[in-house]
Amino acid sequence: MTSAPTTAAPETATAPDRPLTWGDHAGYFAWEMAQEHFQRGDLAELRRIDPDTDAPAVLWRLLASRDLLDNSNRAVERKWALILHGIALMTRTGGGDLSSRSAHSQGTPVGRALYLGGESASQTGFYSEMRFNRLLNAREDMLRVLLARMFRMAASAGVTFNWWEMANFIRNADYNEDAAEASRRRLARDYYQAKRRATVQSDNANS
């Protein structure tokens, strides 16, 4: 899953018509972790953390760099730990350009990435329908567990997706139910649209 190469830092100033969202910050963190100068030790530490219990120095340092500590509380801290854990897992190392290393693919909706994985057509789904529906129905601790597992699965397959979308979903889960439900509906719509298109493509190829 790739998008247009991005070499410049994402916009860091507050937009004139709105404050920065969690997704905006996540996009920046994904860009920062994909930099060659980002310390491998810090990346490894973020990959190892348990978002529910661990708070290593690199977590505080990254959040402080975006002024995200002032209004922090334990629940917010755990959400950011999960986001940074997922981005770190999905960030690739070992060469290539910035866009090929980044966990963030702006043009790849999360639901579509979960269905297709790294394939253009599939009738079974990279992330199975059973797993996907469990994820949509999960709340609180179980949601965090399933997301962490999904990030590892995506990382092992080299799958990337839109972290703006994912970060805003994590932010709203168990906090703003209307916004969280809208995110779940978007995930489902993109997942099943990808399934439908892949099925039609496969049927056409076999006819």
Describe this protein with a few key phrases.
207 residues; mainly alpha; Peroxidase, domain 1; 10 helices; globular; disordered N terminus
Note the topology:
Blueprint: H1 22-33, H2 40-48, H3 57-65, H4 74-90, H5 98-101, H6 110-116, H7 129-137, H8 140-157, H9 163-172, H10 177-206
Helix pairs in contact: 1-4, 1-9, 2-4, 4-8, 4-9, 6-10, 9-10
Characterise this structure.
The protein has a single domain, classed as Peroxidase, domain 1. It is built from ten helices and no strands. It has helices at 22-33, 40-48, 57-65, 74-90, 98-101, 110-116, 129-137, 140-157, 163-172, 177-206. Residues 1-7 have low confidence and may be disordered.
Query: What's the overall geometry?
Result: globular
Q: What is the helical fraction, as a range of percent? A: 55-70%
Characterize the largest beta sheet: strand count, sense, and whether it forms a barrel: none
- Tally the structural domains: 1
At CATH level 2, the architecture is Orthogonal Bundle
The unreliable regions are: 1-7
CATH topology: Peroxidase, domain 1
Helix/strand-derived category reads: mainly alpha
The radius of gyration is 17 Å
Describe the structure concisely.
This protein is an all-alpha fold. It has ten helices and no strands. Mean pLDDT is 88; it is low at 1-7.
